Automatic annotation (TrEMBL):
Name of the protein in question: Porphyrin biosynthesis protein HemD
This protein's UniProt keywords: Lyase, Methyltransferase, Transferase
Family under the similarity heading: Belongs to the precorrin methyltransferase family.
UniProt xrefs under CDD domains: HemD, SUMT
InterPro entries reported for this sequence: 4pyrrol_Mease, 4pyrrol_Methylase_sf, 4pyrrol_syn_uPrphyn_synt_sf, 4pyrrol_synth_uPrphyn_synth, 4pyrrole_Mease_sub1, 4pyrrole_Mease_sub2, CobA/CysG_C, Siro_Cobalamin_biosynth
Biological process annotations from GO: methylation; siroheme biosynthetic process
Source superkingdom: Bacteria
Alphabetical list of PROSITE patterns matching this protein: SUMT_1, SUMT_2
PANTHER family linked to this entry: S-ADENOSYL-L-METHIONINE-DEPENDENT UROPORPHYRINOGEN III METHYLTRANSFERASE, CHLOROPLASTIC, SIROHEME SYNTHASE-RELATED
Molecular function terms, GO-annotated: uroporphyrin-III C-methyltransferase activity; uroporphyrinogen-III synthase activity
Organism whose genome encodes this protein: Clostridium aceticum
EC number: 2.1.1.107, 4.2.1.75
Amino acid sequence: MKKPYVYLVGAGPGDEDLITVKGLKCIEKADVILYDRLANENLLQHKKLEAETIDVGKAPHHHAYTQEEINQLLVAKAKEGKIVTRLKGGDPFVFGRGGEEALALYEENIPFEVVPGITSAIAVPNYGGIPVTHRHVSTSFHVITGHEDPTKENSDVNYEALAKLEGTLVFLMGVGHLKEITEKLMFHGKSKDTPAALIHRGTTARQKTVTGTLENILEVAAANKIKAPSIIIIGEVVNLRQNLNWFQTLPLQGKRILVTRTRQQASDLSRQLKELGGEIIEFPTISIEEPEDFTSIDKVLENLTGFQHIIFTSVNGVKAFFNRLKELKIDIRSIGLAKITAIGSATKAALEDKGVLVDLLPEVYTAEGILEAAQGKIKEGERVLLPRADIARRALTAGLKEMGAIIEEVDIYRTVIPTCKREDLIEILKNSLDYITFTSSSTAKNFLEILGEENKNLLNGVKIASIGPITGKTIEDLGLSVDIQAEHYTIEGLVSSIREE
């Protein structure tokens, strides 16, 4: 039996990229992950496939698990000899009750480690354009729980002392008691004109910031429907927001974007859109799988010296081709003197990563673009190998045959619909989506098959972005409209077109 070990990990304030490197490693090695509602669920994508995940999230007035039950669960899972990661929003020891969980483990002689997280008390004001300290404005900041009702008879918070402080006051979990907090501070002498701000869902694409004064911030919050989770910042530093508001000025700030690429490929597109402020929802509609039978493929790969040209039409094709060579222990030099063609810049980069230089790259990244570029370069009687997907368009094959080339197609990989639930997609679409991105005809076809014709009305008001004309035509053939089409048929081109829309 393995030795138990528990990591109490701070997941940061909301943006999954703000977790520490050490925290991410704890997710990757865990056998069991207990996470709460303020920890970004996207972090669970980094877990081991077989890892157990348990949502112990606690919302105001609704506790899936009490704190005592969470403590007991940590102990029980650890005693099974498992590595347990407790994933908590913010920092475990900043109003995160991490100390209580650590003490429960200590009492049971279970070894544990606390991994600090970036606290929302600092990060959320930062993303709102508000530094908690600033020279000549505020030389200290104070973090206070806003969860406690200030009107109770024996409050643990000394509002009289807080009202006299010149530094920045940051209240966590306090939006439900905003009225009482502001009244208490003013009652004890804090100026009613003191600047104040509320930041909802800080560091995420849904961040919303409102500002006012101690006197009117309650009305401002109500008018803008600010709810939990939000933090309250009180102090002169709030006035710096007008010059330092960097996050909410990003071009895609507040936009919710659905990415339909394979989970393995989604990261690059998601990252670029996220850097522009978008909130990314990944819902892969295709999965890349190996062929069910390699017999005919292997016969071709074992005789590569007989080809004068090899044409790669996707990054997936490059990966599958070289993975199979490695599996068969076929030397890359078996390609011989064959000229290499790549359909686009991403495919070219994938080949170069394998140490293979590209001889031909079309100006237009389509099958038709390859045919135009190949005029006079692929001659009659020359043998051409096309390692491609099982459902690839046949326009390239037909065009090469018209040139007199001898074509050998191998379906080096399969594209299939991944296991996913229609109700999950419907739920995503019901939650005010702004854009859906399609990077291939397969992603579009499978998307509609998963969604179902009867639910197409859920796409009303959602803008559809296509990586190029071939994908765009497929989308239109499916009865949908293309709102954005990339000028350059690459991920960078697609992101650029969405940004400029």
